[in-house]
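Database export, one record per block. Field names are fixed; values are copied verbatim from the stored entry.
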Amino acid sequence: MADTYYLFRSDKPAKKFTMLMQSHNHIHRFGGVKPDGTPYRDYTLLSNPKSIHYEPDKDKRNKIKDNYLARHKKDPKGVHAPSSMADIILWSAKSLKGGIRNYEKKFNVKVVFKNKPLTESEKKKLMNINR
């Protein structure tokens, strides 16, 4: 049976997302946000007409994507690596849903997307922390 991971909006202002890996007792944050609160661009934002980062030209979008992936090629990779989470979830598909599906396929896991920030109470509940 595949592990189930939980993806939340980040509870930290400098990151976009938080991945909670219950079976490993790990939390990883990925995706950058500028100090002013503006998210750094990623393929999901470049592909979304409602995004401030929308790029209507498909060739330009793909060039930006290729450049990002080339810059991060030597970053540590794997199921626990924030670089892999960004590469796959944020840069492999036009939508977050598609990126999550690609991450699930690559690592044989189930990702439950909670479209809200991770709270301390939810973290304790999911991680079975009794404090």
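Remark 1: The chain has one domain: 4-127.
Remark 2: Residues 58-71 form the longest helix (14 residues).
End of record.
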